[in-house]
Amino acid sequence: MKKAALFLGAICMSLSMIVPEGSSAVQARVVTEADVGKKNETSATSGSAIKTKPQRPSKPAKSNKPVKKNNNKPVKKNKKKKHKKQPKKTVYLTFDDGPGSRVTPKLLKVLKDNKVKATFFIVGYEGKANKKLLKRIVKDGHTIAIHTYTHDYRKIYSSKKAFLSDFHKTEKLIVDTTGVKPHYFRFPGGGNNHYMSKKLRKSILKELHKEGYTEMDWNCGTSDAAATYYSAAQLIRYGKTTHWGPDPIVLLQHDANTKYHTPEVTRALIKYYRSKGYHFSGLSDYPGPEMCFK
Hints:
With 294 residues, the chain is an alpha/beta fold. The chain is built from 9 helices and 8 strands.
């Protein structure tokens, strides 16, 4: 600090010797401590004002937000399969393992008499033996779907290749017989069974999704697959009380020849659910997500 003061004093003395008292020259700029050591010092010139270089306005800071480009090109959207908008309270009646020559004709009559559409998950070897019933199912406006060809758990779940080979055999039968390509399928035993690993299920689903298929299990059933000795009254009770989860209801029954109670049970369940305000439809009009047991 003392050295700086002495230095400033020396400068002032030298200036006083150069510039006489009363001169019109502008007094020298006072230098502060912060200015000491700076290269651009201000000097006093006789008969002229000290000119300082004007400061340039600082440039605005660049924004980190990306600039949106408007190229006026419409965004392409994936086309989704269109479905009719269904009431939330809807029952999707589904029948596995048919068509059975003794059961399915009676069942189709019950559905027609009650003006109800349903879904039939076809087993290929049964369909081959009953091609007229396949055609009738489609003609009556029901949804036709795939439940594999052999329904042989050990065979179809031995590998992805084995399952798909069996599956496509049923697909070909349905297309060749009815002219309709199915869009729904159901794993025999459901999507979570002891014969199929999670890895195999994931692999099969990935492939069939590419082909446009949706897997549909169920959230209600009559338990007619568990035994053949249940009475019609017992099956009806199960069909009324086993629904879990939110609506809609996807109700599982069977129309193989050993399931002779199915037409009677179906008639009773249609009456019951209609009394509760439910609507009936085939899965071809189903607007919801895939229902696959995990």
